[in-house]
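can u do me a favor
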């Protein structure tokens, strides 16, 4: 069943062409910084706040972080868990994700089995997501025991994404890893876009508006940034990224009206 947060995201993607989401890593930030960044990101027009990190965070700290963010913003707060410890009852939704190119069944379905009853008990909206790690894979690749898809194998990424769609997942995420030196290549985004019709999320190492524009032009529906907005001046940075997210839609509209 498609829940409230998912409906909101789909509607926004349809309306704006593509959207931006801000990732907040509770491992790195105090409660004050997390809520400050979320507030600034919301006023910069990010569509939702994702909360999660690649390594361990205590559940009480995660709970406190989500509550602080919820108090600061009215946009949805979506969990982006790396394990069962990444669940908080205070969140609006959770990416119910399977790391499709993990070598360890725990990250494909094991953690999900442990998490499912808890998610039901807490009444958190679950949004099914196929998660694919590409390139160097960064910390998440190591923790998730992934066999990352090389940057020059877009057809492999597309095969994974198509498998996600055929398995009934409603979103697919191409992840270069937080702080990746090189984001997911445009060619890979383009190849995946040609094959799959579910919304495509792209993240990892994206810092500049020009990169956002390229990914959206190649077919990304959702751009996720984390690191770049953590260093201060969040509002201005998010505004710039969002401007480029919306660029494509505007350009298409202008073409239509000619
Ligand atoms: C990581 O894709 C996200 O899961 C965001 O990456 O922190 O590099 O923006 P960055």
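np, heres the sequence
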């Amino acid at each position: 069943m498609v829940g409230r947060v998912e409906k909101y995201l789909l509607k926004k993607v349809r309306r704006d062409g593509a959207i931006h989401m801000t990732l907040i890593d509770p491992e790195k930030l105090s409660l004050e910084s997390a809520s400050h960044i979320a507030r600034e990101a919301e006023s910069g027009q990010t569509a939702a706040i994702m909360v999660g990190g690649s390594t361990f965070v205590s559940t009480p700290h995660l709970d406190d972080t989500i509550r602080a963010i919820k108090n600061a913003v009215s946009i949805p707060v979506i969990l982006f868990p790396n394990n069962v410890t990444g669940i908080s009852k205070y969140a609006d939704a959770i990416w119910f994700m399977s790391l499709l190119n993990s070598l360890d069944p725990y990250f494909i379905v094991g953690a999900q089995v442990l998490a499912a009853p808890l998610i039901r008990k807490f009444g958190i909206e679950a949004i099914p997501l196929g998660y694919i790690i590409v390139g160097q894979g960064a910390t998440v690749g190591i923790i998730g025991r992934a066999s990352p898809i090389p940057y020059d194998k877009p057809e492999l990424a597309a095969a994974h994404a198509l498998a996600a769609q055929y398995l009934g997942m409603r979103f697919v995420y191409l992840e270069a890893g937080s702080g990746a030196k090189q984001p997911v290549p445009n060619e890979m985004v383009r190849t995946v876009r040609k094959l799959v019709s579910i919304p495509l999320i792209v993240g990892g190492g994206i810092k500049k508006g020009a990169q956002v524009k390229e990914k959206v032009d190649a077919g990304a529906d959702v751009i996720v940034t984390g690191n770049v907005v953590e260093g201060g001046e969040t509002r201005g940075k998010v505004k710039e990224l969002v401007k480029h997210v919306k660029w494509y839609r505007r350009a298409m509209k202008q073409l239509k009206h000619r």
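The chain has one domain: 4-256. hope that helps!!
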